[in-house]
Amino acid sequence: MTTGKTRRGLIGDITSAVAQGTDWLGQLTEDIFRDQVLGDLFSKMKRAGDISGYRLVHGRNEHGVDWIVQDSSKLGSRYIGIQAKSRCITKQGDYRSDSALSVKQQCESAYNHTFEFDGVTIRLDIVELWISAHITE
């Protein structure tokens, strides 16, 4: 959870970077992108009625996704697993980037697990990769 002071600092940094024309999104660390930027985005989406719910599941037993988002419509609900990355994704991966194969395997492994969401055991309907850096492969 972000505090008001931390959020104002982040917004100030982003505003400054945008004004300078820099790639501010690509400069974010993964924890800032995952926890603060996406957390604030999902909070606003829920308040606006665009999603039914969301939950941060990043951690030791995340099973390949960092967030679960519930999307509901008149046709029913679906659960979307979101894997958040801030490093470039390349074919091989190295100390500066993640391997495309490794990321693919993380996303695929999420389908093999059940998750707790609002007191209900669920399976993901879809897994998406949300990335703040570049994908080269």
Brief sketch in words of this structure:
This protein is α/β, with parallel strands linked by helices and 137 residues long. Helix content is 33%, strand content 28%. It has helices at residues 4-20, 30-47, 100-109; strands at residues 53-56, 67-73, 76-85, 88-90, 97-99, 115-117, 120-122, 126-131.
Layout of strands and helices, then pairs:
Blueprint lengths: L3 H17 L9 H18 L5 E4 L10 E7 L2 E10 L2 E3 L6 E3 H10 L5 E3 L2 E3 L3 E6 L6
Description of the structure:
The chain is α/β, with parallel strands linked by helices and 137 residues long. The protein contains three helices and eight strands. It has helices spanning 4-20, 30-47, 100-109; strands spanning 53-56, 67-73, 76-85, 88-90, 97-99, 115-117, 120-122, 126-131. The protein has a four-stranded mixed beta sheet with strand order 1-2-3-8, sandwiched between helices. It has a two-stranded parallel sheet with strand order 4-5. The chain is globular and about 40 Å long.
